[in-house]
Amino acid sequence: MELKVKYQYTYFIKPFLIKENKYEKYLLNLLNNKNCNLKIFEKERDFNLYSYFIQNVREYFFPTFSFDRDKINSLDRLNNKMKSIILSKFHCNIFEYNFDTKVQGKVGCKDGIFFNIEKMEIICFDTGECFLVIKTDIENSEKFSDLLNFNYRFKEINSDFSKLNDFTNIKIQTDKFSNMNELSDFIDSIIGVNNNTVELKGVDLYNKRFFVYTYSCIDQDNWNTEEDFKNLESDFLRYSNVLSSNSTLDFISNKFDKTVQIIKQFKYSRFGFTKQSASLMTSSVEISNYTKLLFDYENEYLYTLIISLYQRVYLKKLENEFKSKKDINNIRNKFTKFTKAIWLDEITNSLVGTIFYNKWKEIFELKEIYEEIKNKYEVIYKELNIENSNKTNKVILVTLVISLLLNLINFIALIIYMKNW
Predict the structure, then answer these.
(1) Last-in-domain residue among 258, 273, 298
(2) CA dist., res. 82 & res. 26, Å (int)
(3) Among candidates 140, 123, 165, 356, which has minimal Cα distance to 261?
(4) Are 154 and 173 in contact (CB under 8 A)?
(5) Within this chain, do residues 321 and 285 fall inside the same structural domain, yes or no?
(6) pLDDT, tens digit, for every residue of 390-404?
(7) Whole domain around residue 389: which residue ranges?
(8) Does any domain span residue 92?
(9) Is there a domain that residue 31 lies in?
(10) Using CB atoms within 10 A of its CB, is residue 140 exposed (0-12), middle (13-18) or buried (19+)?
(11) Measured between alpha carbons, how far is 58 from 389 in angstroms, rounded to an integer?
């Protein structure tokens, strides 16, 4: 029996870096874009998100939670230039991109897989790390295999690999974009390629591919009290590793838990974690899976991932900067600020949220990278101190030699003077 999906969506997340001296200008570009709006978080409207994160996390990542209506109105009345100056002082700004018309596309040839772009956000941090977040869903299909193939193909649309292959895997049908090249160019225009950004190089985990964050609710006929999840393990592994439906990887059940990290917090839900993806597979046999969990997953849990991913990218950027050994004091100050403000042991009092956050720290190897940077700094600092000490000793030695010579000259001059006297 073919696996069927009742509900599904996928977020595609692309990290990018803004040049340090271009951040305010980049914010101004977004504000000048008529389709971009600053996302304002309000306690009453976004109460689940407000209550999920602890206070210092809210203040850092969601500063508008502290805005009252007067402050929001005052911000709205400012011109964009002044607004960009003010927003650049916040640690984090989130913009929503509103499409004029519904964006629909098609993956594959012939009938293909039709999809919608439901929404898009640009998440910007004052340290220069930013994330483009695109929500999609496929339509007119209940096949789980279509979801697998769509995720597998769409993740490549902005990568060098896809450009080299002229987007042979993806076709698009929409009034806004006539082909995938136009969609890729649109993404580049939002990111600001060649103007405000810098190459990720060692910071880019995905070779310019998207990070895939996906949810699916399987028809209860495929997963219930009689149909065990073990029958879905191979499908789940393809899903979690963002592979196509016809992937020929040898999935061995006794290696299942080693291949992907899983949280079995709920009876009919499975969470998968890899460095390239996050996946949630549920069954419609449990009503809360498609009435509550699917919303939690694209709000509280999505931002939990973004915070963890931000920490990863920031640390990798610092690691690269340490290699140059240039302006070591500036890098040290960045590392100190990161430790005080962003290196967080906890971000939520939620049990599931804490499990998620700890799992992401493990998957992204955050503690290992942090310790490596710390150790590198200590080594570099000692080297610099030794170099400075050697330089100082050389200066002292030269000074002593010069002083000795001067004293000797004065002594000889004194003897000559005494003889002449």
Answers:
(1) 298
(2) 13
(3) 356
(4) no
(5) no
(6) 555 565 555 665 666
(7) 312-417
(8) no
(9) yes
(10) exposed
(11) 45
Same domain, 320 and 282: no
- Measured between alpha carbons, how far is 114 from 218 in angstroms, rounded to an integer? 19
Would you say residue 39 has pLDDT above 80?
yes
pTM summary value = 0.84
In a domain, 317, yes or no: yes
Whole-number CA gyration radius for the chain = 28
Q: Give the position of tokens 């004052």.
A: 126
d(CA 281, CA 5) in angstroms, rounded, equals: 10
Q: Examine the fold and report which residue of 298, 327, 344 is the final residue of a domain before the chain moves on.
A: 298
Residue among 150, 164, 148, 105 at smallest CA distance from 234: 148
Task: Write out the two tokens for 46.
Answer: 């976004």
Q: What does pLDDT average to over the chain?
A: 82
Pair 351, 223 in one domain: no
Tokens of 53: 């994160």
Structural domain count of the chain:
2
Backbone angles phi, psi at 132, to 5 degrees: -95, 125
Residue 90: inside a domain, yes or no?
A: no
- pLDDT tens for 212-266 read 999 999 999 999 988 888 889 889 989 999 998 888 765 555 555 555 666 666 7
How many Å apart are CA 130 and CA 327, to the nearest integer? Answer: 24
Same domain, yes or no, for 368 and 335?
yes
| 185 and 108 housed in the same domain | yes
Decide which of 47 and 391 is more confident: 47
